[in-house]
Design brief:
The chain is built from 9 helices and 4 strands. It is mostly helical and 186 residues long. It has one domain: MFS general substrate transporter like domains (Growth Hormone, Chain: A, Up-down Bundle), CATH 1.20.1250.20. It has a two-stranded parallel ribbon. The protein has a two-stranded antiparallel sheet with strand order 2-3. A hairpin with a 2-residue loop joins strand 2 and strand 3. Helix 2 crosses helix 4 (92-109) and helix 3 (60-85) packs antiparallel against helix 8 (156-176). It starts with 9 loop residues before the first helix and ends with a helix. The chain crosses the membrane at residues 26-47, 68-86, 92-113, 125-147, 159-177. Keywords: Cell membrane, Membrane, Transmembrane, Transmembrane helix, Transport. InterPro entries: MFS_trans_sf (IPR036259), MFS_Transporters (IPR050171), POT_fam (IPR000109).
């Protein structure tokens, strides 16, 4: 579930109604999977078309930067939704928009880790290096809890807006340094 901070109470801060129908919050557990099923083929078609274009495919670094930019935007949207919400309930579409942006960012970024490792690792340590990516995901997942707890000490919108800004800046830096990184790995 995409969570909007430690004090976010879905029943009181989000409007779960579409007409007379109350959307079960459990449906949002399936939002990522639904996005992957629907948007996966679309993203594959975009990558294929891009790869066959005269400019060629985006580099791994630019794809990673794009994933970071989508993730950063999702955090900024989350913070913006909290500000716009004020004392009212947040519209359900805000949560859906955040979920779609996060899923897209994940679909752009996630497959690149093992691909990068298998492409650039020396053959003698390839097996060991293939374990680095899942370990990095483990460390990220473990550190998320600490970051989440830390952010709970601050107002939601500024804290998550700052996280979004940091991720956006990192994505822009990575995009900008693409050529330099490509020369380092080739």
């Amino acid at each position: 579930m995409y969570h909007w901070g430690p004090d976010f109470d879905y029943a009181n801060k989000a409007n779960w109604m579409i007409g007379n129908f109350t959307v079960p919050s459990a449906w949002f557990d399936s939002l990522n999977a639904l996005c992957c099923i629907i948007l996966g083929p679309v993203l594959a078609a975009i990558w294929t078309k891009r790869a066959n274009s005269p400019k060629g495919d985006l580099s791994m670094f630019k794809k990673t930067a794009l994933g970071m930019l989508l993730l950063g935007i999702s955090f900024v949207v989350m913070a913006g939704a909290e500000v716009i919400r004020g004392e009212n309930q947040a519209n359900l579409m805000w949560i859906v928009a955040v979920g779609i942006l996060m899923s897209l960012g994940e679909m752009v970024f996630s497959p690149l880790g093992n691909s990068f490792i298998s492409k650039f690792s020396p053959a003698r340590v390839l097996g060991l290096m293939m374990g680095v990516w899942p370990f990095a995901i483990f460390i990220a997942g473990k550190s998320y809890g600490y970051l989440y707890e830390f952010l709970g000490n601050y107002s939601f919108a500024p804290a998550y807006g700052l996280v979004g800004a940091i991720v956006l800046i990192c994505g822009i830096i990575l995009w900008t340094l693409d050529k330099k990184f490509n020369t380092l790995v080739e």
